[in-house]
Specification:
two-stranded antiparallel sheet; alpha+beta; globular; 6 strands; 4-stranded antiparallel beta sheet
């Protein structure tokens, strides 16, 4: 199960997240999202856990808990929407 972690301190490391989530079960991946230009953390991450029951326990146990001075926002990650248009507008095409 994929878990979203928001409101991360910019100093939080993947190892710190792995340690926090391993207390609830097997962690398969940890991915802190970084700015593509500066390489700095964007303040959120995704953790993948092997078993849904363990992931649910981690969400319940860690949501609202403090890590590096910030209260974590932890919940199930939502799948990305497909085919999104990032240009804005309404994609109107004139029939003429």
């Amino acid at each position: 199960m994929n878990i979203y972690i928001g409101n991360l301190s910019f100093d939080t490391t993947e190892e710190q997240l792995r340690k926090a989530f391993t207390a609830f079960g097997e962690v398969t991946t940890v991915n802190i999202i970084t700015d593509k230009y500066s390489g700095e953390s964007r303040g959120f991450a995704f953790v993948e856990m092997a078993k849904k029951e363990e992931a649910t326990a981690a969400i319940s146990g860690l949501n609202g808990q403090e890590l590096n001075g910030r209260s974590l926002n932890v919940n199930e990650a939502k799948p990305r929407s497909q085919g999104g248009n990032r240009r804005g507008g309404n994609n109107y095409r004139s029939p003429y």
